[in-house]
Structures are given as C-alpha cells and as structure tokens.
Design a protein that fits this description.
alpha+beta, four-stranded antiparallel β-sheet, Beta-Lactamase
Length: 256
C-alpha cells in the first residue's frame, strides 16, 4: 500500500512538473489556431523574410522581424532574420505584429490597404485621425511568455490576438490565388519605407500577393510617397531618405 501511494505521488509530481515547464517550440506550434489554415508556416515566413531582407531595399540594411495574423486576428507565426533575437531591434517584434493586425483589420476582399497607405489620413488634419487609438494592443499577450521563444515556432504571441494599430510602412494584407483575403503580414526592423519594401518582397515570396484592388495608380496597395514639402494628404507616406523610394518593386500577382 505504501509503495502504491509512493507511485501515485511520483506520477502526480511528474504531471505537475510537466505543467510548470515552459512550452517547447514544437508543443506551442501545435496550438496554432484553425484560423491560420492556408497561411504560411513559421519556416516559410522565415525563409521568405530572410530572402527579402537580402535584396536591395534601401534603408539601413538591418535584420528584421516578421509576423503573420489570420483574418480573425490570431497570430500565426513570428520570425526574425538574424542569428538570434537580439540581432533585430527588440521593439520591432511587437511592431511587426501590430502592422500585420492593421493591414488585416483595414483591408477588404476587394480593397487592400497597406499600413503605409494609412499614414496621411491618420495625421491630425486627416480624415482618419485617431484610428491608431481604435484597436489597442493587448498588453497581456504582448508581454507574456518566455523571451527565449521570441521569433521561434513557439513564440508566445502565436495563437493569440495581439491587436494594435500601426500607420507607417511594413504591413500588407495577404490574398491567395483565388483572391481570398487570408490575413496580414507585418515587417519591422529598418526604416518604415524599407520595411514596406521588405514586406512587399516577402509577400511575393509567399505567393500571397494576388491583390484585388488598392489606392495606388496601379490599383494595388503599394506605398505612395509624399512630394518634397507636400503636407500629408490622401494615402501618401513620407520619404525616409535612404533611397527606399528608388527601389523598383515587382508587380503584384494577377489572378487567373
């Protein structure tokens, strides 16, 4: 009887220890919500983001954070391009997730708006001033979990709704070949203009750039730059000053 009690106690202790231990990357990845179905995996995001960061994007040539959210706003993946999480600006992890959330939250099945497109309208004289305060970031989600998992398949943001609004370059909506809006991509870590360029290339690399329409002359969600001394107007974004506006980005994909 004593041995039985000891065996039960041992099993109970093991169970409690398993609960107390932090989730591994593989365990946390298994908790990815159903709303992320059809969206890139962590590895696909990391590979596409890394390839895009290596291109000529203007800016400061810094390493990047990237995040993907589903149409429901659930975080599906968070990745970085450096050797470790400290090789990118730590603050850019949450910014990338906010950009993904924003592009998803303010794009529609027939109209894509990048975060760069929202800059002018959200300035004090703009028609959308205050938008950036409308869907606040969830601090419990933003600052939870172990930093050791940041940017890995088991990032603590995965499976949760981060919220937050960001109104400068780096966030794009994701559309598959049928034109279905699946969610949003956010990229951060360089100038906001370079962030947009890298996000644009990342989305292209993921084959989720079948944009149905937008506010640019090309009817997509590409960045539109303010002219010299032009006050914020329409859907335009400031020039960042590091040749980002000279980069020739590929056209979005055409639906069959």
């Amino acid at each position: 009887m004593i041995h039985s009690h000891r065996a039960l106690a041992g099993l109970f202790s093991c169970a409690m220890l398993a609960i107390a231990l932090p989730l591994t990357a593989s365990t946390a990845h298994a908790a990815t919500p159903a709303s992320c179905k059809g969206l890139p995996t962590w590895k696909q995001l990391k590979d596409a983001l890394t390839a895009a960061r290596k291109e000529d994007n203007g800016g400061l040539a810094l390493d990047m954070w990237g995040s993907i959210v589903s149409r429901d706003g659930d975080v599906c993946a968070v990745a970085f391009t450096g050797q470790g999480r400290g090789d990118q600006w730590p603050g850019s992890r949450l910014i990338s997730a906010q950009k993904a959330n924003t592009a998803n939250a303010f794009s529609l099945p027939k109209l894509a708006l990048s975060t760069a497109n929202l800059y002018s309208a959200t300035q004090p004289t703009g028609s959308l001033f205050g938008l950036q305060e409308s869907n606040p970031l969830n601090p419990a989600v933003a600052y939870g979990g172990s930093p050791a998992q940041f940017g890995l398949a088991g990032d603590p943001l995965v499976g949760k709704r981060i919220g937050g609004i960001n109104v400068f370059g780096g966030g794009l909506a994701l559309y598959d070949a049928s034109g279905t809006l699946l969610g949003g991509l956010g990229v951060s870590g360089d100038t906001s203009c370079a962030d947009h360029n890298i996000a644009w290339r990342t989305r292209k690399g993921l084959s989720l750039d079948f944009v149905p329409g937008g506010v640019s002359p090309a009817k997509d969600d590409n960045i539109l730059y303010l002219g010299d001394k032009e006050t914020p107007v329409g859907f335009k974004h400031p020039v960042c000053g590091n040749k980002e506006n000279t980069i020739d980005l590929p056209a979005v994909a055409k639906r069959g």
